[in-house]
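stuck on this one:
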Amino acid sequence: MKFMKLGSRSDTFYTAESVRTISSEVSSDLIIQVKGTRYLLHKFPLLSKCLRLQRLCSESSDSPQHQIVQLPDFPGGVEAFELCAKFCYGITITLSAYNIVAARSAAEYLQMTEDVEKGNLIYKLDVFFNSCILNGWKDSIVTLQTTKALPLWSEDLTVSSRCIEAIASKALSHPSKVSLSHSHSRRLRNDVSSYNETESLRHKSTSKGWWAEDLADLSIDLYWRTMMAIKSGGKTPSNLIGDALKIYASRWLPNIRKNVHNVKRETESDSDSDSASEVNSKHRLLLESIVSLLPAEKGAVSCSFLFKLLKAANILNASASSKVELATRVGLQLEEATVNDLLIRSVSKSTNDMMYEVDLVMTILEQFMLQGQSPPTSPPRSRLAVERRRSRSAENINFEFQESRRSSSASHSSKLMVAKLVDRYLQEVARDVNLALSKFIAIAETIPDFARHDHDDLYRAIDIYLKAHPELSKSERKRLCRILDCKKLSMEACMHAAQNELLPLRVVVQVLFFEQARAAAAGGKVSDMPSNIKALLTAHGIDPSKHTAPLSTTTSIHADDNWSVSGFKSPKSTTRNPTLRMKLAEDDLDENVVPRDEIGRTSKFKGLGLPTQPKRMFSKLWATNRSATEKN
């Protein structure tokens, strides 16, 4: 890093009885009070270079021999004042990126301009700043960081804005054209030599995103301004912007690299001097700023990273606009997600609330299905209050993102992948006893019918939901099962469904019907159905001469949720599980299926012989299936 030395005399400042003074044969005639520290100095060297001190001394009514000057609001404190005082005495001072902001602010405060004396401190500092600080990469970053101590002075002196412009211009250049610090240059050389392969890899390691790690040292407000300047240059690929944001989030968002659900706990444990709410507010501002910097292009950041931000936003109670924007971006690349990504824990402590944020996932799914459609004329983000001051270029980000969504469209293969993802997600959230039936059905129905080649995973989710919600009424179970297409169930799923005591009878009947039709078709011809099945179908309003329409138009699995038919294949298990008999007896009293006044007049039910007939019907059905399979 660059530095500049001014003056040639040795330092003779010393402290005596809590008073700072300078060794001199001439007695002091000026007392300056700077933030609790008293200085015994001399008028001549100070007043000859400081216009402010000249004016204050001329206005003072104190004795000319010991005038007292109060400087309570001196920028930079006693360290900055001593730099200026030593410069006036000709004592050697060293200036660098670490103290130039304080020194420049102090010199401005004391009015050490060229009008007072040629070659004054302000002039020398400006030359050093323009020729050395702004030309150095690390110098510019360090100087920008120090502006946090004096934000108002830095803005008035345009130090912050000029540093940001210099950093942005260098980030858009190849590092070979940038004056890097010795340590940073050595790090780049090590990165290149570690590959020790082709020139393309060397070029990649030194030319793409080389600046992201250094910028991650900035505080969020300075980082936001710097990234906006880099983005406005229009030369940085969106994926590099995304990588830089990921690096910054990993450094500053608590524990995002490990488990984002520990954010709240960590912020509370780390709040020694500040309250937990203040720490959460700081992290919330940081997260919302990162969200506002996300590139509009699809795929600029990974889906996994977006989900981590979304989970953090949920825990930190970020603004609704940030959540909606993240959910929309996730929806554009939902096919990249995993079940664990979708499992967004609820932060509510109420025992009646859901375990997972299902509504948020519903929003994501809706955004996924909206791809290729025109966005609303007034995007949700523009209607919501944005808590952060944003530049004009930042306001255009949402419009660019909406245009990106309109130009993209979910492919057929991505919808097939999302359908599998949603069904496995439903298997996980189905265990939540507080998950409403309407929400379960709504999520399942967001997937178009063509996207599900089979309904085995959906059936598994329904089975888990029925087990976790035994209090469901018969009508609710029927409503749930309407989303299931029995024609898309595998043989194994059909055999399990036919013996599932939790399913409504109508579903069991349809499973039997389609399995019989499938077995007959596999044998090369469609045989007539047994009379007892015909009677059962007719009694429930199903025409056995026609194919029944489907009932719908629309991770890891725990060991006890896996279903198989191994327990249903032996005759003994069939005897112990008179499922259909129970279903028929139960539904005979269901007026929604067969009115009570029709029960006594329906001879078909008498002909079925409920105590014994179901067993014979299952035996005949499975025998037909086996014979059809053997023919193949």
